[in-house]
Amino acid sequence: GPPKAEPAALRYVANRLIVKPRRGATPAALGAAHAALGAQVRRRFAALGDLQVVDLPAAVTVPAAIDRYRRSGLVEYAEPDYIVDLVQQTPNDLSSLLWGLHNTG
């Protein structure tokens, strides 16, 4: 069906992804997955299970890249880099937002 519209609070950076490698995914396999999309790793967070912030080329949309990473079997999750205006969020809203980000369905 048609893509669901994102609520206004869930805008995201158009050319960036957050990727959490699956346990056992090798750096070489992940590197090949990034290269296949033309993606560049911007930042790595070793303390967060090697969580990676990935820049996408202009030709690749965030939803298409997420689909490719999920189908690769190399990631626990891939998701947009949401732009969250924390000043506007109450703690309640924030906890439900964070739950939603990791509910990969």
Describe the structure.
The protein is α+β, with helices and mostly antiparallel strands and 105 residues long. 31% of the residues lie in helices and 30% in strands. It has a four-stranded antiparallel β-sheet with strand order 2-3-1-4, with helices on one face. β2 (40-45) and β3 form a beta hairpin. The longest helix is centred in the first third of the chain and has 11 residues, at 27-37. The two termini are 16 Å apart. The mean pLDDT is 83.
Tertiary shape? globular
- The SSE string, one letter per element, is EHEEHEH
Strand % is 25-35%
Amino- and carboxy-terminal Cα gap: 16 Å
If helices are DSSP runs of H or I spanning 4 or more residues, what is the number of helices?
Answer: 3
- Helix content range of the residues, please? 25-40%
- Across the major sheet, the strand order is 2-3-1-4
Low-confidence residue ranges: none
Radius of gyration: 14 Å
**Average residue pLDDT:** 83
In summary, what is this structure?
Helix content is 31%, strand content 30%.
List keywords for this structure.
105 residues; alpha+beta; 3 helices; 4 strands
How would the blueprint of this fold be written?
Layout: E1 11-21, H1 27-37, E2 40-45, E3 51-55, H2 62-72, E4 75-83, H3 91-101
Antiparallel strand pairs: 1-3, 1-4, 2-3
